[in-house]
Structure to design on (302 residues):
C-alpha cells in the first residue's frame, strides 16, 4: 500500500511527556527571560561581515585595498625638530594603513579605532579647520578628547546597522565594512567611511557609503539638505559635504553614497569626487594645520 493511501497522522501528538490537553484560551505564551549572562553576550557590536541585499548580489568576495593616492602638498613648510618628531610618530606605510583599516572595521567598538584617530584630523572636522580663522587652542584640545558621545551620536551608532540594511535593499547592492583610513602621504589626516559599496554600472565600481541617522522624523527637517528642482541635495557648504569629499580624497575612491536615514523616510544621494574643491580643501588643511593647529597640539601634548 502506498503512503498516500494511508490516513494522515499529522494530528497525532508526537510529544506528550509533561503535556496535557487544554483549551486554546488557556495556553499562555511567554518569552524566555534572558539571564544576565545572556544579556552580556547579546551586546550589540558593529558587523564586520557586511550587509547583503536580498534583492541583488553581484559580488561576494572581499573588497580590494584602498588605492590611497599620493597627495602632493602645495604648501611649503619647514618643521621644527619637535614638530618633525610629532609628525614622524604619525607616519604609516601602505601596508600598515591596510592592516589598520582591516583591524578597525568594528569602528568605535575597537580601542585601536580611537587610538588612531587621536591627534589626527578626522574628515568630519575638515570644514572647521578650513574655515576657522582663530581659536585653534580649543580645537587642538578637542583633538585629544574624541571619545565623547552625544545623544545623536549614540543614536547613530545604535541605528547604523539597520540603516545599512535599508540602504542595501533600496539600491539593491551589498555593503561591505570599512575601517579607519590613513593615507601615508597625509598621515595627520584620517577618514572613517561607514562602508564600501560595489556598483558594476560604474566605471570605478567600488565606492563608499556614509550613513547619517538623525533624530528626525523626516528628511524635510534636515537643515543640511536643500531642495533643488523638486529633489533634495546635500549642501556643499555643510561639514558633511567636506567630510565625504575628504573621504574620497584620502581613499582614492571616485564616488560616495550619502544616506540619511530618518524615522519615516530616507535620502540617498551619490556624490562624485570634485577635484577642484578637494584641491582647495587640501591646501587650506595644510596651511591651517601646520601654521596654527600643530603648534597648539604640541602645547597640549607637552
Amino acid at each position: 500500500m502506498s503512503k498516500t493511501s494511508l490516513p494522515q497522522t499529522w494530528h497525532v501528538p508526537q510529544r506528550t511527556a509533561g503535556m496535557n490537553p487544554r483549551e486554546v484560551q488557556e495556553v499562555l505564551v511567554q518569552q524566555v527571560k534572558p539571564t544576565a549572562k545572556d544579556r552580556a553576550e547579546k551586546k550589540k557590536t558593529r558587523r564586520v561581515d557586511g550587509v547583503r541585499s536580498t534583492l541583488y548580489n553581484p559580488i561576494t568576495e572581499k573588497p580590494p585595498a584602498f588605492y590611497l593616492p599620493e597627495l602632493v602638498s602645495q604648501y611649503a613648510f619647514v618643521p621644527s625638530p619637535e614638530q618633525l618628531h610629532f609628525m614622524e610618530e604619525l607616519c604609516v606605510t601602505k601596508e600598515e594603513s591596510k592592516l589598520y583599516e582591516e583591524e578597525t572595521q568594528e569602528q568605535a567598538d575597537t580601542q585601536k579605532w580611537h587610538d588612531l584617530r587621536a591627534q589626527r584630523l578626522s574628515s568630519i572636522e575638515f570644514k572647521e579647520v578650513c574655515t576657522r580663522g582663530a581659536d585653534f587652542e580649543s580645537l587642538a584640545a578637542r583633538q585629544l578628547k574624541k571619545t565623547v558621545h552625544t545623544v545623536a551620536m549614540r543614536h547613530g551608532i545604535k541605528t547604523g546597522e539597520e540603516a545599512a540594511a535599508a540602504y542595501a535593499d533600496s539600491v539593491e547592492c551589498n555593503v561591505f565594512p570599512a575601517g579607519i583610513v590613513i593615507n601615508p602621504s597625509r598621515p595627520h589626516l584620517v577618514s572613517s567611511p561607514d562602508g564600501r559599496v560595489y556598483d558594476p554600472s560604474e566605471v570605478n565600481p567600488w565606492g563608499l557609503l556614509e550613513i547619517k541617522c538623525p533624530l528626525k522624523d523626516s528628511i524635510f527637517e534636515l537643515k543640511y539638505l536643500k531642495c533643488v528642482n523638486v529633489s533634495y541635495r546635500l549642501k556643499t557648504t555643510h561639514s558633511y559635504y567636506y567630510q565625504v569629499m575628504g573621504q574620497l580624497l584620502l581613499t582614492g575612491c571616485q564616488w560616495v553614497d550619502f544616506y540619511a536615514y530618518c524615522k519615516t523616510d530616507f535620502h540617498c544621494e551619490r556624490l562624485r569626487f570634485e577635484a577642484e574643491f578637494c584641491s582647495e580643501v587640501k591646501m587650506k588643511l595644510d596651511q591651517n594645520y601646520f601654521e596654527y593647529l600643530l603648534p597648539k597640539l604640541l602645547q597640549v601634548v607637552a
